[in-house]
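2024-03-11 09:14:02 DEBUG pipeline.ingest accepted 1 chain
2024-03-11 09:14:02 DEBUG pipeline.ingest length=219
2024-03-11 09:14:03 DEBUG pipeline.predict start
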Amino acid sequence: MPPIVAIIDYGSGNLRSAEKAMARAASETTSNHSVVVTSDPEIVLSAERIVLPGVGAFADCMSGLSSIPGMVAALEDAVLKRGRPFLGICVGMQLLATWGREHGDHKGLGWIPGEVVKIKPLPASDGSALKIPHMGWNALSISRPHPLLQNVEPGAHAYFVHSYRLHTDNPAHVLATTDYGGALAAMVGRDNIAGTQFHPEKSQAVGLGLLGRFLTWRP
């Protein structure tokens, strides 16, 4: 039986696009993974790799995840105790934080200590105001080497859609940034845990390459 990549369905996320992109990445590698969209904690526990997508408000996403009986416990067991490779995407990355400050204070998973706060960009170089949400293609600046960022050229572009940003307590957890009136965390990670603020499933060759490396990543 092929190893499973579990994409968690908790009522929030660009599931079909993520599933399609991950399946394509699997077909273009020798990993032979089976990509499964699931809300079953038992499948998550049995999966070799786990992906947590997310679109929308922090509180709604955390509530949706927590409302699935046994899901948060299964994630903690699989990721924190068993060391399964984990990838959070967009709000799925933000849920790694200790706190989300969107429309109040809301507890996150706490795997990457920090808080999710509203983007307050400095003016653009020409003095104009930058729009919120931050939406569209932006260049990546790699902060530290990581297997998932291997072969990503400096200045490579990825696709972003967000109004809030993850500010980590530990700067070493920031793997890449993007400049939008100041540096924003574009990718974070530690140990077997990684998260992208950008959408790899919408980031063409850069995103597909990252997903392919996720499938072969051995933390």
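2024-03-11 09:14:41 DEBUG pipeline.report The domain at 4-216 is CATH 3.40.50.880 (Rossmann fold).
2024-03-11 09:14:41 DEBUG pipeline.predict end
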